[in-house]
Design brief:
By secondary structure, the protein is an all-alpha fold. The protein has one domain: MFS general substrate transporter like domains (Growth Hormone, Chain: A, Up-down Bundle). Helices cover 77% and strands 0% of the residues. α7 packs antiparallel against α8. The longest helix is centred in the N-terminal third of the chain and has 29 residues. It is globular, with a radius of gyration of 21 Å. It comes from Haloarcula hispanica N601. This is Sugar transporter. Keywords: Membrane, Sugar transport, Transmembrane, Transmembrane helix, Transport.
Length: 437
């Protein structure tokens, strides 16, 4: 369908694909949409179910990526994403939402390992794998900038009808399949043709052995546990940004003449209520936060070069956890907290994934990266349940603060007793020399 592409054009097409996987139309209103018919606890259960299914599906879908090809896995991810989004237009209720969450989990697992595996191997084949953090980070930035624009539109559409953002998302995310078809297959899949007996793939038993060898031992074990807990805390915290924004900032925007639904900010947050002005305000807030967060991905390579892998992946999560706690006492700090939460993962993930990629082989790379995602999803499951119960018993702000405190304690223990990303131990030595320079 698409002809040969230059190296520079290849990177541009990768950025285009990253733009199409943005779900900005629904991001600023998704939890409020669910709270129209669900409680915080039910939202937490859905989030936990998604995490549990992701844990179960990560290794098999990573294996699919290594077996069928990374691009094929990513195409399946687009299909399941669009199907799930369309379901929210057509169905309602806890059980239906559970099914749609399952489709969403499958889409995420099909993408989680294959996207980075495709990029790393493509750079190794055609450019330089040392550019992984730089290009991956700018891909994050492109995705975030696209999300920022669509978030404003999504907030506006929600004020007109809560279904409209999902309709827009279905149309936009469907473009991901076109972007993917413009990207080449990795060489090991393009060269083998239809040969199903290629020796550069792992069978299931070999897959388990490779995972155990690479991920359950130094130098990756402590890093995966630390960033896995961090990603889990961030992911659960994101669920409560919308009600937390209404709780902490509702009284302030009311003084500016913005109508807050009856019952006050906390009651409005629990009921998923948002008038047209408040919904648009959430869209603008999310857009601003996402625009700020794009700096994290854009400068990930520069931060890695300045601080080194070890300092970057330890310090950024710790500071983010502190930021989660502060709004419990100072409501206006919620705004910089939201910005910090949105920036932290795009900053840390390219650095951490680059380090992990440096310590695994090309064969089975997608499976190994899926195993990393599985570890944080496993940690996310109990946190999602606990946060939902805590938010119902107290407030969303309190639940988020508890998550930050938990990371400071548990992450501090990992730092004390484990070696997180020792820079002197690498497969090639390239990253160590960069970090030391």
């Amino acid at each position: 369908m698409f002809g040969p592409v230059s190296d520079r054009g290849l990177v541009r097409r990768y950025y285009l694909y990253r733009a199409t996987i943005s779900v900005g139309f629904i991001t600023p209103i998704f939890t409020l949409f669910l709270l129209r018919t669900l409680t915080f606890t039910q939202v937490g259960v859905l989030s936990a179910v998604c995490s549990a299914l992701s844990v179960v599906g990560e290794i098999p879908t990573g294996y699919v990526g290594d077996r069928l090809g990374r691009r094929a896995s990513l195409l399946l991810s687009v299909l399941f994403t669009v199907t799930s989004l369309a379901g929210f237009v057509l169905a309602s209720g806890f059980l239906w939402y559970g099914f749609l969450y399952a489709l969403w989990a499958l889409a995420l697992t099909l993408r989680s390992g294959s996207m980075d595996a495709w990029l790393y191997d493509t750079l190794s084949e055609r450019l330089d794998s040392g550019q992984f953090s730089h290009i991956r980070g700018r891909g994050d930035a492109m995705q975030n900038w696209t999300a920022a624009v669509s978030m404003v539109v999504g907030g506006l559409l929600y004020g007109l009808d809560p279904i409209y953002p999902f309709v827009a998302a279905v149309g936009f995310n469907s473009l991901g399949s076109v972007a993917l078809l413009s990207l080449p297959k990795n060489r090991q899949y393009a060269d083998r043709g239809g040969d199903s007996d290629s020796g550069d793939r792992l069978d299931p038993l070999e897959t388990v052995a490779v995972i155990r060898t690479h991920l359950a031992r130094p130098p990756l074990r402590a890093l995966i546990l630390y960033i896995g807990l961090f990603y889990a805390v961030l992911s659960v915290s994101h669920t409560y940004v919308q009600p937390m924004a209404v709780e902490t900032l509702g009284s302030y925007v009311a003084t500016l003449g913005v109508e807050v639904p009856a019952g006050g900010p906390i009651a409005a947050a629990r009921a998923g209520e948002a008038g047209a002005a408040l919904a648009l305000g959430l869209g603008v807030l999310y857009a601003a936060l996402t625009a700020v967060s794009s700096a994290g991905g854009y400068y990930a390579g520069a931060i890695e070069a300045r601080l080194g892998v070890r300092k970057a992946v330890i310090v950024v999560p710790a500071l983010t956890a502190v930021a989660l706690v502060v709004p419990l006492w100072i409501a206006l700090v919620a705004l910089p907290t939201f910005a910090t939460v949105r920036t932290a993962k795009p900053l840390v993930q390219p650095i951490a994934n680059g380090y992990i990629n440096d310590h695994v082989e090309a064969v089975g790379r997608a499976t190994l990266l899926s195993a990393v995602s599985m570890s944080y999803m496993a940690l996310r499951t109990p946190l999602a349940l606990a946060a939902g119960v805590a938010a119902d018993a107290t407030t969303a702000t309190t639940a988020v603060a508890a998550l930050g405190g938990l990371f400071l304690v548990a992450g501090g223990a990992v730092w004390l007793f484990g070696a997180i990303a020792p820079e002197a131990v690498t497969a090639s030595g390239d990253r160590a020399s960069k970090s030391a320079s």
